[in-house]
């Protein structure tokens, strides 16, 4: 963990012990439920944690900001962001019960008071949030079809309200199908030397653009 601290100067000193405890707990859970591939768990901090923490170099949140992490899986990036942004409130959702059970256990054992975990689909959530997050959940058109009504406009934070999506690979085809483009593309290859981060990005879509996202041509669900 010490090796990555200098890369994220905006993460508070209070957050690092919680992130260290999180890493221990996640490894324990990964022995029971395959949250991260067995061969990749040894790179938990350098790759998966760092992947999520990268947003802290670009985003500052005001008190009371509300965020929904859709398809949270084992809590990526939702739990990690909740540790780093205790002033904000996070709702973590996933349709798979065993994953939400893990997330709830992590929330309880880490003593996180700013997180709710729910087993449901995004379409069932009728509230609006300042930001929607997702990490490699689905193709962009389908993902946006789930959350189009859940993001509200606003500019209280360091970047405008919207969608923050962790995405890898070629972007052009999916962005063309989506019909809107990110206002900001964070190229993680420029932050990290590890080849793992080649063609990995965090995309910020402004809430004002989200209603214009095209429907997917064919739903996979």
TrEMBL record:
GO terms for biological process: methylation. S-adenosyl-L-methionine binds at residues 71, 76, 122-123, 135. Its main location: cytoplasm. It is found in: Cytoplasm. Keywords: Cytoplasm, Methyltransferase, rRNA processing, S-adenosyl-L-methionine, Transferase. It is an enzyme of class 2 (transferase). InterPro entries: rRNA_ssu_MeTfrase_G, SAM-dependent_MTases_sf. Its EC number is 2.1.1.-. GO terms for molecular function: methyltransferase activity. Belongs to the methyltransferase superfamily. RNA methyltransferase RsmG family. Specifically methylates the N7 position of a guanine in 16S rRNA. PANTHER family: S-ADENOSYL-L-METHIONINE-DEPENDENT METHYLTRANSFERASES SUPERFAMILY PROTEIN. This is Ribosomal RNA small subunit methyltransferase G. It comes from Thalassobacterium maritimum. The gene is rsmG.
């Amino acid at each position: 963990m010490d090796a990555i601290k200098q890369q994220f100067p905006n993460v508070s000193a209070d957050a690092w012990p919680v992130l260290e405890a999180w890493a221990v707990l996640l490894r324990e859970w990964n022995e029971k439920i395959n949250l991260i591939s067995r061969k990749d768990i040894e790179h938990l901090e350098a790759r998966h944690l760092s992947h999520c923490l990268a947003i802290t170099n670009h985003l500052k949140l005001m008190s009371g900001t509300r965020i929904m992490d859709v398809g949270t899986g084992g809590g990526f990036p939702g739990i990690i962001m909740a540790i780093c942004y205790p002033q904000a409130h996070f709702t973590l959702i996933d349709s798979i019960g065993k994953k939400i059970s893990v997330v709830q256990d992590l929330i309880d054992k880490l003593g996180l008071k700013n997180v709710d975990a729910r087993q449901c689909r995004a379409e069932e959530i009728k509230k609006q949030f300042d930001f929607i997050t997702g990490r490699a959940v689905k193709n962009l058109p389908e993902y946006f079809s789930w959350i189009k009504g859940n993001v509200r406009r606003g500019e209280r934070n360091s970047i405008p309200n919207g969608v923050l999506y962790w995405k890898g690979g070629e972007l052009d085809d999916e962005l063309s199908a989506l019909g809107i483009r990110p206002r900001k593309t964070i190229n993680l290859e420029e932050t990290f030397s590890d080849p793992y981060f080649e063609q990995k990005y965090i995309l910020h879509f402004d809430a004002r653009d989200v209603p214009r996202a095209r429907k997917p041509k064919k739903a996979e669900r």
